């Protein structure tokens, strides 16, 4: 059954924890978005994990270099997953995987900026990533002609464990589930909703159906 | 005359400021490395700028998405420059440039992971970047067969303002200067030296010669 991940793109850890408290019953993975990480530093990860010791915490580091060092930082602060950019070299991913094995945690490779996402997803899994995030960033989503359908089609033919991020909402969640993802990542559809708990619950019900 | 930038890859802002105090007389740009940013958050940038109001402070965000938001965060915390990944889409760079213009600050595009660095450098300058960092990351430098000469050759034929990072030291600084860079970035050659001040002074003297 696909997990539900909430991507929290707020800038204050107190606001992020307050949001997480509302939606936690329906969420499997709590993601601290990259701007939140850069705003609060490692102490933000520690505070989130301390507040939700039974949830999986993902630190969206989007690491582009020093893979082992940065992954060790994230895991040391309490993260269960750390993201590494797929555009980076294999040695950066391999370094992060080494750190993940030592901590019993996982590396997620983020395909933002990658030209051939399916090919890179297969390579990343071969390098030891736990799963690969097929991802259109906030800037790409704002570009004319963007559709999540591209990611859904790629997930269906990837043949390796993937998540989808970039426009997961009530309109797309059934198709995202159908594509066979291991994780569906919702951001604005939850944190931007009038009632984040109801929004998370509705998404989770479709994943569980 | 080429500026000298020190890349500080320490994890505690107190250690970073202590190092910066030693080398400041010979340095034009103080860079907070990506691991330091992720470790300390925005408060690290603020502390560094407060300690060195007359130096240029570069926040090595390596932004891969939400260019305008992340650049605004860095400039708001006191950074004079923020780095954006060249592997990311043009809209991310353009968003960061928009924020830079509003703050009267600058965007530096980091070519880590870029296949054709010279081509991307020209595109980044056309998008409004202040300069482009021709960069081999720590992981790439550790790979067999790496040589800074590739970056030096690219700088010489780029025809746009570039810096070089990835192996700048006493062996390479003269060739780096000769290539016409606007900034030479030294990391381990300074922070890993027995006497960081002497190391920075020696590099600066060659740039000024």
Relevant terms:
eight-stranded parallel beta barrel; TIM Barrel; alpha/beta; globular; 209 residues; 11 helices; 8 strands; homodimer
Helicity of chain A, as a percent range = 40-55%
Poorly predicted regions of chain A are none
Give the distance, in angstroms, between the N- and C-terminal Cα atoms of chain A.
9 Å
The strands making up the biggest β-sheet of chain A line up spatially as: 1-2-3-4-5-6-7-8
Shape of chain A: globular
Strand content of chain A: 15-25%
What's the multimeric state? homodimer
Per CATH, which architecture of chain A?
Alpha-Beta Barrel
Of all chain pairs, the largest interface belongs to: A-B, 38 and 38 residues
> Structural class of the secondary elements of chain A?
alpha/beta
Mean pLDDT of chain A: 97
Number of domains of chain A: 1
Superfamily (CATH H level) name of chain A: Aldolase class I
* The CATH top-level class label of chain A: Alpha Beta
Which fold does the CATH topology of chain A refer to? TIM Barrel
Main sheet summary of chain A: 8 strands, parallel, barrel
Give me the Rg of chain A, rounded.
Answer: 16 Å
> What is the helix/strand order of chain A?
EHEHHEHEHEHEHHEHEHH
């Amino acid at each position: 059954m696909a997990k539900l991940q909430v991507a929290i793109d707020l800038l204050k850890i107190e606001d992020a924890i307050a949001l997480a408290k509302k939606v936690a019953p329906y969420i499997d993975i709590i993601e601290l978005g990259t701007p939140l990480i850069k705003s609060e530093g490692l102490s933000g990860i520690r505070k989130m994990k301390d507040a939700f010791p039974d949830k999986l915490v993902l630190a969206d580091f989007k690491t582009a270099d020093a893979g082992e060092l940065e992954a060790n930082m994230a895991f040391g602060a309490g993260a269960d997953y750390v993201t590494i950019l797929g555009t980076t070299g294999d040695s950066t991913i391999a370094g992060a995987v080494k750190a993940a094995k030592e901590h019993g945690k996982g590396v997620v490779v983020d395909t933002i900026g990658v030209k051939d996402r399916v090919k890179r997803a297969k390579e990343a899994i071969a390098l030891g990533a736990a799963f690969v995030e097929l991802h259109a960033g906030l800037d790409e989503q704002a570009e004319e002609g963007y559709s999540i359908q591209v990611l859904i089609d790629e997930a269906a033919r990837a043949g390796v464990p993937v998540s989808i991020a970039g426009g997961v909402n009530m309109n797309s969640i059934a198709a995202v589930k159908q594509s066979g993802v291991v994780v569906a990542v919702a951001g604005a559809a939850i944190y931007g909703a009038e009632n984040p708990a109801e929004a998370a619950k509705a998404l989770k019900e479709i994943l569980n159906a």
